[in-house]
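anyone else get weird line breaks when pasting these?? whatever heres mine. first is seq + tokens for prot A
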Amino acid sequence: MPGQYKIKDIENMLGVTRDAIRYYSKKGLIEIDKNNQNGYRIFDDEDIFDILDISYYRKVLDMNISDISKCVSSKSFEEYLTTIKKHQNSLEEQLRKTEQKIEIIKYIRQEIEWFSDKQENYEIIDAPSGYLFPEKYLYDIHSNIFRIGWPVSCFKYNNDRLCHTGTYTFAVVSPDTILLNEQELSAKEYLPGGKYLRFLFVSEKEINDPALIEPILIYAKEHGFGFFDCYYLTCCFSFKNNHARKNYYEASLRLK
């Protein structure tokens, strides 16, 4: 009979698998009639349009089943628009997180390229300003205000002994941004931008080991650099090589 199709016909015409069609039916997105004589599922032209709509929501708009259900069962234009707006907000949040991940990947790539060219070399750089946050915020610090967070250990001398004072998450402040009071209060320390002496190196030692910061201190003193009494060690990235974890560090001193 014209206008009636079996599930294999739908597969061939629309490129939608029978498992997907059964899943849509199970979730209540489509209602499928059965042939009383043989029990086969029978589809009509309206079912085809419904499946096309669902496939569009899933494949093109990347919409979840719950929101698709709201779209196909909307009783008013306003209800449909609300679901669409919600999904738009969700996609924009995914895009924001993806852009942050790309920024992190760019930074790691940049660090790898720097290490390949400048490893074991000292140089003076113009560093951006930022904030030190509690270490637990390492994976949550990214926002429209802060760009890229990574672990930083701080060291100071105490009674002529170099000591580890804490490990934090350093976040670069975006240009021309006024921080919210809550963010300023939660920050452990503000790090102004400016001239820093930097040393890139590789070590298997942990980030809280004071021995890691000693080479740059010796170098700075031997070459007559004046610097502030707080020293920073950043773990730019790390990976296992021949069953040994190697950490790629950046030691830095803020110059006076």
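and prot B, same format (seq, then tokens)
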Amino acid sequence: MVKKRKQLPDVNELVIGTVRRIYDHGAFVTLDEYNDLEAYIPLNEVSHTWFRNIREVLKVGRKNVFKVIRVNRRRMQVDVSLRRVAPSERRSKLYEWKRAQRAEKILELAAEKLGKTLDDAYREAGWKLEDFYGEIYAGFEETVLKGKEALLRAGVKEPWASILEEICKTSVKISKVKISAIFSVQCFQSDGVERIRSILTSWYDLPKKYEVETKAYVVGPPRYRVDIIALDYKTAEKVLKKIVEAMKAKAQELECSLVYERLR
């Protein structure tokens, strides 16, 4: 079971819940990340569309993404909503949940190899990676890319670091994303070829800074294509923005024309 360090969720937090009991006035769910803490979903928080019976929407045993709407910390009571969860929030939470499950499996394997408990694995490695990288699985991805140093830098000590590095190399697959753009560059001066070359290479130091892969090639003068390959779309888009800014600035400096087109 995926763990959270805190005892109770916060208001507006997205949580994974399993429906346990259904009544006419609402239902009770257990929160998977909070040691099966029981939470209540009122009838009016089940759906934003009309339904005849609550059992048309909720099914016993089914997992859903809920949003926390009330927390009574003294009584350890939590109320949740299903209707307030946007489709994009649901997708994001499920993605986070799946990554957390993969991370926990890796921690379990490491604990077994060392003769330790899962709680030991979270304490000695998991929480340290979460503090340093924002997410345990992100720390494991960094380990695949940079080796044991990524674990040591986060405060994970031996023998945990060596065992986790070994497991990550075989268990963690790095998925990458690619975005592309077309640049039309024209310089009509006598040294136009050199000016175009200066514009097209004005951003070449950026990939090193952001740790992304780039490919640049001629489509057919004056059109040039740039591909950016990164671990996530946010980083790729950020790098593309920097490339556009660098090329536009250089084109303006050299009195050349530049038109940018983002490929979909």
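btw re prot B: The two ends are 39 Å apart (CA to CA). Residues 177-263 form a domain with the Alpha-Beta Plaits fold (CATH 3.30.70.1130).
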